[in-house]
Amino acid sequence: MVQRLNHGTETTVLRKFGINETYQLAMYLIDQYRGTCLSCRYTIPPRLAPVESRAQLEEAVKIAVVDTIMRHPMLQVGMMDATSKTPSWIQLQSLDLTHHIKWPDLGEHEDFEQTVQETFRAQLDDRFQDVSIKQPGWKITIFRQGNAPIMEVLLTWNHPQFDGAGAKVFHEDFLEMLNAENGAYERTGLDGDILTLPEAPPLLPPPIESLKSLPVDLKVLAKAFWEETRPQFLNRDVSWAAWCPIRTSPYKTQYRAFFMDNVSLVAILALCRQNKTTITGLLNGLALIAFSLRLDSTVAPAFQSSTIMDHRRNLPPAPPDAPWVRSDRAVGNYVTQCLHRYETELVARIRSKLPADASEGRDLSADLQRELWAVSAQNRQEIMGKLEAGLRNDLVGLFKYVTDWQQTMSKMAKKTRQFTWLVTNIGVLDGNTSTRLGTTTTRSPTGGDSKSDDGQRWSIDRAQFGLSAEIPAAAIEFAQVSVAGQGMCVSANWPDCAVDETFGENIMADLERWLAQLASL
C-alpha cells in the first residue's frame, strides 16, 4: 500500500504493527520504557589490530553492518503514525550509517572497562528522539583503545524494532559477516556512509499473531477482564508486589551486572541438569530466596514472578524468499511471558530456614539448597508446559483485545504492582561462526581455510545484556546471556524512583554470592 506523506513524497506501508510491537511502542511513547542493550566483546584479527590499520578496521565493520542490514529487513524500516493507535512499518529509501555506527574517541589513559559500563548504563536510558520515518531505532557504539586486539560493540535499540533474541541473532550474523571473505550481498547501494536500500519492498517477519492462532478460553478471558476492571481495594491477593508501589517519575534506570567465568558456569550447568532445571529456573529460585530474605513476611507473604519466553520454536518455517532463511534466525518480536506464583506456605517454609539476621550465615544451607532446586525444577516445568501448549491462553492472546495501548499502560501505572521480579534469558551466543555454520573449511579473509587460520578470524569472547527500567512491570528485572565456552553475565535493573538502591544491590549481591557457592560445590 502506497500512502502520501505531508511533505508530498510517497511511501510504501509494509504492514501494521503487531501486538507486541504496538504494546512496546506505547510504553516507549509514555516513557515507561526506553532502551535495551546487548554488548559483545570482539577479538580483532591481528591483521586489523595495528593502529595504522584503523581505516581498514572501520571499513570492515561498516561492510559487515551493511551485509547484516540486508539480511534482516527489520533493520531497514521506519515507523509511520507512531503516536496513533495503529502505527505502521514503512519502507525507507536509504539509511545514513552515521546514525547507526558510532566510534567514540577513547583516550590512551581512559579506563576501557569503566567507559564501556558507563556508556552501557547511559544508553539504557537514552531515547530515540525521532520515531517517525527518518531512520530505524537501533545503533551500535564501538569502543576501541589504541592497538588493543579487542573492541566492544554495544547494540542499543528501541524494543518495537526487535526483541533480545533478535539482538543475539544480529551479533552472531554480524560476526559471520566480519569473517566472510566477500560478504553475503553486493554493496552497490553503499556510497560513503549512505546506504541506498533496494526499490523492491522488503519482506518483514510477520507478527506472531498472524502466524499462530491465539485462542483464549472464556474462563481465562473473564478472569483477565475482572483483574483489569476491579477496584484496587478488592485485590486481596497477597502475592502481588504491594510492597513496591509503581512510580512513573523521575525516570532513571539503576543497573548492575556481574560476570561468571566458564569453569564456574560449567559447574552450575551440571548442577542444573542433575536437578532437572535450567539457568532460568535457577535464577527464579535464587531470586525467591533473596526476596524472602530481604523482605519481611508482613510486607511480602507471597510472590509472583514472570519469565520472558521466546516463541520462535513454535513458528512455522520461514517463507522460501526470506533473507533470514530460518524462523529461529528472524530479527523481530516473538516474546511472551510465563507467570509463576510462590504461595504463602512455600515462602514461609523458605523463611523458616533462613538465618534470623540477614548479615549472618550468608551461604545457602543444605536445607535451603533442597528448597532451591525443588522450586527451580518446578519453574522449568512451568516454562516447558507453556512452550508445549503453544500460544493457547497466552498473554499475547489477551493483548489482542486491547484497543488503546497508551491508555492501558497509563492505567496500569496507577494500579498495584503484580510482579516482584522478572527473568529474561536470551541464552547462549555463539562467538565462533565456524561452529555455527557447521564447517571448519570456510574461506578466511586472508585466504586458506578457517581450520588452519583461526588466528585471523573474528570471535566474541563476552556478552552483556541489559534492559531499561520497565515502570509498571516487575520491581527488579534480571537479564542473562552467555557466550559458548566463555562464561556468563547476569544483570539486573530497577526503577530508581520505586526501588531503594541499596535493596537492589543487596539482592544482586545475594545472587552473585550464591552462584559462586554453588559453582564451588
From TrEMBL:
Chain residue ranges for the region called Disordered: 434-456
Low complexity bias: start-end ranges: 434-448
Top-rank taxon, per record: Eukaryota
MF terms in GO: N-acetyltransferase activity
SUPFAM superfamilies listed in its UniProt record: CoA-dependent acyltransferases
PANTHER family found in the cross-reference section: ALCOHOL O-ACETYLTRANSFERASE 1-RELATED (PTHR28037)
Name used for this protein in its record: Alcohol acetyltransferase
Organism of derivation: Lipomyces starkeyi NRRL Y-11557
